[in-house]
Amino acid sequence: MSQIAARQRLYRRKRSSIFHGFDPVLTAAVAALLFIGTLLVYAATRDWYARNGLDPQYYLKRHVINIAIGALLAYGTTTIDYRLLRAYTPIVWGLGVIGLIIVLIPGLGSEITGLRLGLHFLEVSRFNQQSWRRYPSLLVCP
After folding, report:
1. In the chain, what are the domain boundaries?
2. What is the pTM of this model?
């Protein structure tokens, strides 16, 4: 029997369970870091929100939702065979290059205090120009 036939049998074999290839040490370490990060986010934001009459658990809820979305995406990536994604690599690369070229076209983007902030339909308009100067992180995390 050739090596190619042996490999094909190996690739065609179905997973014995959903925990095939599961690394418990890595998973426990990631879970511990996520738990500590969640506690830190909650401890850092609850007092300010409570003083201002807002929901003190706003960022806690938001963080837990983001963790759940990340866990679902991580599980989804483990179920996809990466060899199938190789066929789509040129398409994704081409779309990325086209996206980079589009933002360089004059008239499509918006400019605030000399900064090009992207396309008009992606513009966040709830902050004034002074906010962009004081808090440059708002450009990344609106």
Report:
1. 21-80, 84-142
2. 0.52
